[in-house]
Amino acid sequence: MAMQITTGTSDLRDITKMERIGAHSHIHGLGLDDKLEPRANSQGMVGQGKARKAAGMILKMVQEGRIAGRAMLFAGPPSTGKTAIALGMAQTLGPDVPFTMIAASEVFSLSMSKTEALTQALRRSIGVRIKEETELIEGEVVEIQIDRSLTGATKTGKLTIKTTDMETIYDLGTKMIDSLSKEKILAGDVIAIDKTSGKITKLGRSFARSRDYDAMGADTKFVQCPEGEIQKRKEVVHTVSLHEIDVINSRTQGFLALFAGDTGEIKPELRDQINTKVAEWREEGKADIVPGVLFIDEVHMLDIECFSFLNRALENELAPLVIMASNRGMSRIRGTKFRSPHGLPVDLLDRVLIVSTKPYLEDDVRQIIQIRCQEEDVTLDDESLNVLTAMGMQTTLRYALNLISCAHVLARKRKSDTVKVEDLRRSYTYFMDDKRSVQWLKEQQGALVFEEIEGNEDVPMDGST
Ligand SMILES: Nc1ncnc2c1ncn2[C@@H]1O[C@H](COP(=O)(O)OP(=O)(O)OP(=O)(O)O)[C@@H](O)[C@H]1O
Ligand SMILES: [Mg+2]
C-alpha cells in the first residue's frame, strides 16, 4: 500500500527556527549593492571585498536555481571572516531557501553514523515548495455564546458567522473557545478559520460596526463583510525541507522529534518513498524543489569516508550547494596518512570553487571593532580605539574583539561608561593571545602535563606553528 506522505503545518516550523545572539550577531547580510559590488561598510560587513563578491555571485546562481550539486570552499587564515561571510549569505537568501550550517565535527556523533548525519544535513538543505488547498471558514462574527460547566473545567459554545449571503452556526469545543478568547474575537469581527489546523486569523472589524469606532481605538482596521459562501477553498504555499518530511513521516520519530532535535537514523526505504512522492508532486505541478545551501564549517575535521561520501552525494539529483570553510594549509586528511591542501582530498578539491579570504588591513580592523562596540553597546575613546586596532593587527582580529567586553567590565568597575587605554592594557595582561600563550608554554618547558609527541603535522594558513 502506498504510504501517505504528510508535510506538517507551517506553525510547527516557525517554532523550530530560533535566532541566537553571538560573535556574528552584527552581520545582517553580505553588504553588496545591486550590481553585486561590495559596499565599503554595510550590513555589518567590512572589507574582504573579493570573497564577498564571490559569495554574492554564488548566491545569485542559487536563487536562480542554477547551481545545485556544486561545492565551494572558503580558505583563509583564522578570523578572516569565513564564518561571517557564510552567515551573511544565509541572511541574504531569504526565508524560503533553506540554509543549513554544521561544524564538521558534529558529524562524529554516537547516536548516528557519519553518513547518516551528512545525509540529514544535505536533506535539510533541500526545500520543497508545496502548493496546498485548504478549507477556510471566513465571515463576520454575529455572536459567540459560551456555556461553562459549574466547575469551569469544560466549556461548550456556539459561534454564529455570516457573510452577506448566508449565516451558519458552528459548535465550539474547548480548544476553539480558548483560541477565540486568546485572539480577543468579538461580535462584529471578520475572521478566517483554517479548518485543518484550527488557526484563527482576525482580518479586521466589519464596516457595519464602524459606529463603535470610539470604543475600538484608532488602529482598528475596518473591512467589508465577506460575500458568498462561508466555507471557501484557498491555495496556500509553504516550504519544508526534505529532512522535515523525512522526520514527520518516520513512524518511530513523529514530528515531535523536530522539537527535541533528536531525530535518530531514518530508514533509507522511507527516504526512497519520499523522493518518489516528491517527484510525483513535481510532475503534477503540486510542488517545486528549492535547492538550498549546506555550509560545513571547519571542513578539515571530516575524514576520508565523509569526503568520498560527499563526492558521491554532490552528484545526486537532489543535491544542494555545499559551501565549506577551512583555515588549514597543507594538512593531513583525517583517516589517512596523506597530506593535502586544506586537509581535503584532491578529488574533492577538484570539484570545488575555491575563494580565499585575506588578513585584514588596519582600517578594516578599526571599522570591525567599531561595529562590534555598537553591537555590544560599549563606548571606546579615540585613543583606545587606536590601541585596540593596533592590538588586532599584532594578534588576531578575534582577540581584539574579545577584549572589548573584558575592558568594558574593567571600565565599569571604575564606575565609568567609556573604555580607556588603561582598561585595555589591564585586559591585555589578564588574557593572553595565542602568540603569548605559545611563548609562555615554551618558557614553562616540561611543567605542563602533556608534551608534543611528534612534529607539528598541520600547518595553519597564517604559517604559524
Ligand atoms: N568582513 C567582516 N566584517 C565584519 N565583521 C567581521 C568580518 N570578518 C570577520 N568579522 C568578525 O570577526 C570575527 C572573526 O571572524 P570569523 O569567525 O568569521 O573568522 P573565520 O574566518 O571563520 O575564522 P576561523 O578559521 O578561526 O573559523 C567574528 O566575530 C566575525 O563576525
Ligand atoms: Mg570560522
TrEMBL record:
Q: Which InterPro entries match?
A: AAA+_ATPase, P-loop_NTPase, RuvB-like, RuvB-like_C, RuvBL1/2_DNA/RNA_bd_dom, TIP49_P-loop
**Where in this chain does the record put each AAA+ ATPase domain?**
68-359
Where it sits in the cell: the answer is:
Nucleus
- Subcellular location, principal: nucleus
Which reaction is the catalytic activity of this chain? ATP + H2O = ADP + phosphate + H(+)
Q: Keyword set for this entry?
A: Activator, ATP-binding, Chromatin regulator, DNA damage, DNA repair, Helicase, Hydrolase, Nucleotide-binding, Nucleus, Transcription, Transcription regulation
State the EC number(s): 3.6.4.12
Which top EC class applies here? hydrolase
Q: Which GO terms describe its cellular component?
A: Ino80 complex; Swr1 complex
For this entry, list what GO says about its biological process: chromatin organization; DNA repair
Q: Which GO terms describe its molecular function?
A: ATP binding; DNA helicase activity; hydrolase activity
- Function per UniProt: DNA helicase participates in several chromatin remodeling complexes, including the SWR1 and the INO80 complexes. DNA helicase which participates in several chromatin remodeling complexes, including the SWR1 and the INO80 complexes. The SWR1 complex mediates the ATP-dependent exchange of histone H2A for the H2A variant HZT1 leading to transcriptional regulation of selected genes by chromatin remodeling. The INO80 complex remodels chromatin by shifting nucleosomes and is involved in DNA repair. Also involved in pre-rRNA processing.
Q: How does it assemble?
A: May form heterododecamers with RVB1. Component of the SWR1 chromatin remodeling complex, the INO80 chromatin remodeling complex, and of the R2TP complex.
Q: Which family does it belong to?
A: Belongs to the RuvB family.
Q: What is this protein called?
A: RuvB-like helicase
Source organism per entry reads Collybia nuda
